[in-house]
């Protein structure tokens, strides 16, 4: 299939009018093609409106059945970025983590990187921001905020308000045992929003950045992630 | 370590102090935290459109209720994975519902249930005929008006795919036009619908 023919599949794709293998193929294409991904997102909203028109009154038994089933149905954790099995991690890590978290707590404000978003040309632009799908964001307001973790490594947040995205990466931060994971939180007046789990030394975790988020925290959580932070955290970035 | 929460300045304010508007998006955020009451409220927002769409595609009421239940359970399960780039919550729910309904149609088809399939071939069936359910009248009228702005080929391609579950190749066969044309009509038809529906889409 030529590239032009692939691009033309956006309509058929959002209508669920392609076969399974072609669907999988097109979804791989979507990961690399920003133009198609954007078009799919727009056309999907149109397709959903075709469905809205068919609203109907569901029977009470269906409500009772669904509400009963959720009480025994486990929820999926937030999307995990580049999941890989942990290897060679010392079981003593948790103890060490507890100590280092306490250490971080003691110096919380001190470890925060000092760059303010929107600070103009004086900001540290760092390397180009690369998102998970390979797109390079050359946003003029992209800035890099770094913070030192007491666990011996550093964290880095590359963010742009204009494209509303942030990429968080951990460099040299201790790996966790398989039962635990680092979770990234976007924090603003609405409370913490999970941006997902992140592994040290894996690629950056890329998330949308809501306008009201003013800082980002990284905490240790159970490996499946938590609905809200349960530990004080190992890193914090102030976005100003 | 949970006992340490709240000891640091970075700890966010308790969620209970944050007044959130009760939009499906706000409800979903609470559902992602395992809030069953929020899910019940979200169910009330979504169950009608979800079931309506599935009935529209599958016709069979009992099967449709099953598929609608699976869709709503999937929303419960995947609440934490929702991101705004997937559109609003209702559109996300309907996307899941449609995919599940279409999968059911296709597996039914491979199960050689040709008779049911043939019933869907009735060329006289159009948007009005299946609009017998209780509906969100305004939105229905808007969508119908928008569909009326399409060329015949655009409208039939989209309806055969979305409401009847045909692949674009099958639509090409049915309408006796090249598959590349079908793909294009689906795409440019949706783009035209998007303009016609304006801010709604």
Describe this structure in words.
The complex is a heterodimer of chains A (240) and B (201). By secondary structure, chain A is an alpha+beta fold. Chain A is 28% helix and 24% strand. Chain A has 6 helices and 10 strands; from the N terminus they run ααααααββββββββββ. In chain A, helix 3 packs across helix 4. Chain A is globular. Chain A starts with a helix and ends with a strand. Chain B is mainly alpha-helical. Chain B is globular. The relative contact order of chain B is 0.08. The N terminus of chain B is likely disordered. At the A-B interface, helix 2, helix 4, helix 5, helix 6 and strand 7 of A face helix 2, helix 3, helix 4, helix 6 and helix 7 of B.
Topology, please?
The complex is a heterodimer of chains A (240) and B (201).
Chain A: H1 3-7, H2 10-14, H3 20-32, H4 34-52, H5 60-70, H6 93-106, E1 129-130, E2 136-137, E3 143-148, E4 154-160, E5 165-171, E6 180-188, E7 191-198, E8 205-208, E9 215-222, E10 235-238
Antiparallel strand pairs in A: 1-2, 3-4, 4-5, 5-8, 6-7, 6-9, 9-10
Chain B: H1 24-32, H2 36-58, H3 61-78, H4 89-110, H5 114-119, H6 137-148, H7 152-162, H8 168-175, H9 179-197
Arithmetic mean of pLDDT of chain A: 73
Greatest chain-chain contact: A-B, 72 and 95 residues
Helicity of chain A, in percent? Answer: 25-40%
- Encode the helix/strand succession of chain A as letters: HHHHHHEEEEEEEEEE
What is the general shape of chain A? globular
Write down the overall geometry of chain B: globular
User: What does the radius of gyration of chain B come to?
Assistant: 20 Å
Radius of gyration of chain A: 21 Å
Strand content of chain B: under 5%
């Amino acid at each position: 299939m030529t590239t032009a023919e692939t691009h033309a599949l956006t309509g058929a794709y959002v209508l669920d009018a392609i076969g399974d293998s072609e669907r999988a193929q097109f979804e791989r294409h979507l990961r690399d093609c920003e133009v198609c991904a954007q078009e799919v997102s727009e056309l999907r909203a149109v397709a959903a409106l075709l469905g809205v028109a068919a609203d109907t009154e569901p029977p009470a038994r269906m409500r009772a059945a669904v509400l009963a089933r959720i009480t025994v149905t486990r929820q999926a954790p937030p999307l995990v970025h580049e999941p890989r099995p942990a290897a060679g991690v010392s079981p003593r890590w948790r103890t060490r983590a507890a100590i280092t978290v306490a250490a971080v707590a003691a110096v919380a404000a001190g470890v925060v990187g000092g760059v303010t978003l929107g600070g103009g040309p004086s900001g540290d632009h760092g390397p180009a921001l690369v998102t998970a799908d390979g797109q390079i964001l050359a946003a003029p307001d992209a800035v890099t905020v770094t913070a030192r973790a007491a666990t011996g490594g550093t964290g880095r947040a590359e963010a742009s308000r204009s494209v509303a995205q942030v990429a968080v990466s951990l460099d040299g931060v201790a790996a966790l045992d398989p039962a635990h994971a680092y979770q990234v939180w976007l924090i603003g007046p609405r409370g913490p929003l999970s941006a997902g789990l992140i592994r040290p030394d894996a690629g950056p975790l890329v998330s949308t950045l809501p306008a009201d988020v003013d800082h980002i925290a990284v905490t240790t959580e159970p490996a499946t992630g938590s609905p809200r932070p349960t530990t004080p955290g190992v890193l914090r970035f102030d976005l100003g | 370590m949970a006992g340490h929460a709240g000891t640091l300045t970075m700890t966010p304010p308790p969620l209970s102090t944050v007044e959130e508007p009760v939009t499906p998006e706000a409800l979903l955020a609470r559902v992602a935290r395992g809030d069953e009451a929020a899910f019940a409220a979200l169910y009330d927002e979504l169950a009608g459109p979800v079931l309506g769409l599935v009935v529209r595609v599958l016709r069979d009421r009992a099967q449709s209720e099953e598929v609608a239940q699976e869709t709503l359970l999937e929303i419960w399960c995947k609440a934490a994975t929702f991101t705004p780039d997937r559109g609003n919550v209702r559109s996300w729910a309907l996307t899941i519902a449609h995919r599940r309904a279409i999968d059911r149609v296709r597996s039914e088809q491979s199960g050689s249930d040709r008779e049911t399939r043939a019933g869907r071939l009735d060329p006289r069936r159009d948007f009005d005929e299946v609009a017998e359910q209780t509906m969100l009248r305004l939105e229905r009228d808007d969508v119908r008006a928008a569909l009326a702005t399409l060329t015949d080929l655009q409208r039939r391609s989209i309806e055969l795919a979305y409401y009847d579950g045909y692949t674009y190749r099958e639509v090409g066969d049915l309408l006796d036009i090249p598959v590349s044309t079908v793909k294009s009509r689906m795409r440019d038809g949706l783009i035209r619908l998007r303009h016609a529906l304006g801010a709604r889409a």
